User: What shape does this take?
Amino acid sequence: MNLTSIPALQDNYIWALNDDAGNCLIVDPGEAQPALEKIYANGWKPVAILLTHHHRDHVGGVPALLEKFPDLPVYGPQETEDKGATVIVSQGDTVSLLGLDFAVLHTPGHTLGHISYYSAPYLFCGDTMFSGGCGRLFEGTAEQMYESFQKLDQLPGDTLVCCAHEYTLSNLKFAAAILPHDPQIMAEYLKIKDLRAKNSITLPTKLAHERQINLFLRTQDPDFKRALNSDLSPEHVWDTFALLRKKKDHF
Assistant: This one.
C-alpha cells in the first residue's frame, strides 16, 4: 500500500491510499481539484471516498469527484448523508476496500457523529486527534473527546495517525508553553518548527510518538496535572482534559 497526503485549502490534508494496481481510496476531500490532479497524474482508479464528518473542509470536493466518478461509493456517518455519503456507517461496522478491513470507530467531540477508520497501520481520524493536539469541541463535549482519545489510545503504537490538518507546529508551541522543561516536547517543537520553515509536511505521525508529545494523551499523569495546576483529585476523569482544551482555545 502507498499512502499519500494531498494538501488542500489552507491547511487541510486529503489522504489517498492506493495498492500496487493503482486502485485508490480518498479520505475527506475538502476540495476536488488537488485530489483529481493526483488521481490523473498517477493513473489511479478511485474505488471509494471515506468521510469522517460533515464539515465543508472535509466534504466540499465530493460533488465534483462524483461528477468524474459517478459510481464511486461514499462512506460516512449519518451526519454526512446530505453531504454526498451513499453508504452510512457507524461504530462496529467494517468497510472492506483495497483488500483491507477498516473498522469504523465512533469518535465524537469535534462533531457529534464524527467517526474514524482503522486498518493497521492506518488510522484516518479526521479532526479528532492531531499531532500534538486534539480537535475543537464544536458540537461535542470534553467528556466525549476524552473518551474518543481513550478509544484511539488502545490502538497499537505503530498506528499511523493520518489526521486532516497541518496543526502540528501550533500544537507543539502550546505544549512547549505548558511543559517548557520537557525535553521530548521541546526537541519536537524545534524539529517541527524547522520542518514548517521549509514548508515540509509533518504527517502522518505514529501513535507511540503521540503518547510522548501529545498532552491530550497524558491528562491522567499526576506530574502533568501538577504542571497544569490541575486538582489532582478531579471530580471526573476528563476534567484535566477539559481544562487543557480550554487553555488551548485561549492560547
In short: The mean pLDDT is 95.
